[in-house]
Amino acid sequence: MSDLLAGMARLVLRLLLVAMGLVFAASLFVAVAVLACLWFLRALWARLTGRPVTPWVMRVDPRAGWSRFYQAGPRPPSASPAPAGGPVSGRTLQDVTDVEPKEPRG
User: Fold this and answer.
1) For the segment 31-55, what is each residue's pLDDT rounded down to a tens digit?
2) The whole model's pTM is what?
3) Is the distance from CB of 91 to CB of 85 less than 8 angstroms?
4) Which among 15, 27, 70, 102 is least buried, having the fewest CB atoms inside 10 angstroms?
């Protein structure tokens, strides 16, 4: 008796999964058909009005993602450049040494 119930449960589950797959496929088909009809009507309207038939395109700007995150971050404080040779924190620019030049090894 339990084999019969297990077999029935498997059959019902398979039928349910097949039905779900058919509903999904039918919904994709309907979506594609609606888009095709819209594109056809748009192309027909363009022909009737004498305009060129232009394709639907998705414009992607690769800089948009970068600029969105770059602009969202904290802004660095704007430092005004010190005048050349003027005092900077009690020192002059001649007191500051960045590097000591060395001869390259041969």
Assistant:
1) 999 999 999 999 999 999 999 888 8
2) 0.47
3) no
4) 102
